[in-house]
Structures are given as C-alpha cells and as structure tokens.
C-alpha cells in the first residue's frame, strides 16, 4: 500500500513539473555532458535513458574505446567511452571511485535501433539555443556526426554530436580491433 501511495505522489510531482516546464516557454534542445576534456551537446530526440555507472563486461579483441557490454534495465548495451572515441586516442587514465560515481551512461534513443550507451564523466544539464552566444558550422574535414560548435556566455565551447549520424557511421559500428 505504501508503494502505491509513493507512486501516486511521484506521478503527481512529475505531472506538475511537466506542466511547469510547458508554461515557462523555455525549450531545451540538448542534453549537455562532459567527457574527458570535451563538452558535448546531445539532441534530446536522439538521447535515451540515462543510467548510473555500471561496470561493463569487457569484450576481447575490440577497439580501445569500446568498454564492453552492460545489462541496463534488462537490455544488453554496448558501452562506448565517448572521450576516447571522439579524440581517437585511448583513455589511459584510471578513474577514481569518486569520479565514477559522477559518470553516467547515456543510452541512444531506441528509435535509432542501436543498443549503445555512451560513457560520460558528468551531466551538465539541459541547454536551449538561448544559452549560447555564438555558433560555428563544422569544418569541411569534420566527421559527419559532428554538428555545430556553440559558445556559451562564459566562453565555454560545446560540440554538438548528432547521435543519429553517429549511430550509422561504419567506424562507430565496427568495434572489432
């Protein structure tokens, strides 16, 4: 009985927060995350569920950026270390337990049909276009999955990642070493 009451209270709070979000007029477009030295923006329509750090089961003979597979809420997901993939260099730093507590696994939206979660070091919240003062299109040599580079009021640069384009890239899908 207590669980049912707690669920009703949770649903009521969630409904009121959703209604408040609709009436503020501020539309979030991206989930902002930090991974390694990079700051990234994931389009909300491409990002899926966010999970706490779950150590993946290593898979032999894979790329250094592919950490293995993890059971996330009953589904089997490949875990990609975002900063290592984006930089093209393996991440040799051993994360402390405190750092891993802030780490999150951001699953790709199930509509993208790729059971994959990206390891990020920290969630930085939601961002809308109004949070940025400037934007630059990707360079001619940039990978197809990189979107615009945005600058916020503090001068921080945020790289948009098109998760749909990323999920279709052969180098992302080819995890074999």
Automatic annotation (TrEMBL):
Alphabetical list of Gene3D superfamilies matching this protein? CheA-289, Domain 4
What sequence ranges are listed for the domain CheW-like? 27-172
- A Pfam family matched by this chain, by name? CheW
Q: What biological-process GO terms show up in the record?
A: chemotaxis; signal transduction
- The parts of the chain that form a coiled coil are none
This chain belongs to the protein called Twitching motility protein PilI
What organism is listed for this UniProt entry?
Answer: Variovorax paradoxus
